[in-house]
Amino acid sequence: MELDDEELWSIFDRRNLGRDRREQRANQRIKDMQDHGHQAPRRVRSLSRDEIVKTAIKVADAEGAQAISMRRIARELNAGAMSLYWHVSSKDELLDFMLDAVEGEEEFPPVTGDWRTDLTAAAWTQRTALRRHEWLMDFIGGRPPLGPNTLRNLERSLATIDSLGLDMVTALNVLGTLATYVMGAVLREFREMGVERRDREAAGGLTEDDLHKIVHDHVQKLRGTGRFPHFTRMYEEGIDPDSAETRDARFEFGLRCVLDGIAARLPGQPG
Fold first, then answer.
1. For residues 245 and 124, what is the distance between their CA atoms, to the nearest angstrom?
2. How would you classify residue 79: left for phi > 0, otherwise alpha for psi between -120 and 50, otherwise beta?
3. Rounded distance, CA 156 to CA 121, Å?
4. pLDDT at residue 19 tops 90
5. pTM score of the predicted model
6. CB 232 within 8 A of CB 222
7. Distance CA 103, CA 145 (A)
8. What confidence tens digit (pLDDT) does each residue in 128-139 have?
9. Which residues of 244-268 are buried (b: 16+ CB within 10 A; e: fewer)?
10. What average pLDDT does the structure give for the chain?
11. What gap in Å lies between CA 79 and CA 96, rounded to an integer?
């Protein structure tokens, strides 16, 4: 039996909001707003949920999820705030739709049948999505509903490792471990990017040579104490552990370590 996306939403929505319930809540919300003197919506039927969600994602990408409100999105759409409630019952529900829409953006390469290759591709795809939508990190893992795109991606991921013969708990732990690594790596990358921005602002009119001299002088002072030989060696070898140029390589190294650990836990492996 085929289920459309709306029916999939109704199955997993913790608020049990199907089509009828959503319209009932929209009608009540609009009535309440009208009772308080608000004008009737200028655009009701001409809006669509997809349009609302795409607009909200665009605002969040530019300004962060804290900028999201029903009034703000209505203004972006040149619509009355009450119009949105025909399609989205609340800001919480809008966030659920946004998260699932982003899941639908993920473009996974064809499954090869080799679990390491396929999980590697999935990890890189997830990293790309998280970096494209920085606000996702504030909500991922904290929104219980499974939307249609989230459900499809989970089904695909489980199918990717189906040949390993894992029980369901272990399979979910494998995928969870991989997702945790990706989120942690991206969070570190965001921190590095933030430091880079602050450094540029603090540098003002300083040239690269000026900055290099300042760092060099600080390292010389540290070397003189004799207490930080490993740190000064890192500097002498020209290694910047937070370099933007090495982010991809560092992500790949960590990912291989995670996959090696998963491989060591597979059935038939010692230990």
1. 17
2. beta
3. 12
4. no
5. 0.81
6. yes
7. 13
8. 999 999 999 888
9. eeebeebbeebbeebbeebeeeeee
10. 85
11. 21
Whether the per-residue pLDDT at 106 is higher than 70: the answer is: yes
CA-nearest of 210, 112, 139 to 120 is 112
Look at the block and give the residue holding tokens 């039927």: 45
Contacts of 198 (CB under 8 A, 6+ apart): none
Three-class DSSP labels, the chain: CCCCHHHHHHHHCCCCCCHHHHHHHHHHHHHHHHHCCCCCCCCCCCCCHHHHHHHHHHHHHHHCHHHCCHHHHHHHCCCCHHHHCCCCCCHHHHHHHHHHHHHHHCCCCCCCCCHHHHHHHHHHHHHHHHHHCHHHHHCCCCCCCCCHHHHHHHHHHHHHCHHHCCCHHHHHHHHHHHHHHHHHHHHHHHHHHHHHHHHHHHHCCCCHHHHHHHHHHHHHHHHHHCCCHHHHHHHHCCCCCCCHHHHHHHHHHHHHHHHHHHHHCCCCCCC
Compute the average pLDDT of residues 221-250.
Answer: 91
Amino acid at 141: G
What does the block give as tokens for 194? 């933030």
Token code pair at residue 46: 């001409």
Select from 104, 7, 12, 108 the least CA-distant residue to 53: 104
Q: Which residue has the tokens 């939508």?
A: 133
For residues 6 and 15, give the distance between their C-alpha atoms in angstroms, rounded to a whole number: 14
Those residues whose C-beta lies under 8 Å from the C-beta of residue 166, and which sit 6 or more positions away, are 174, 266, 267
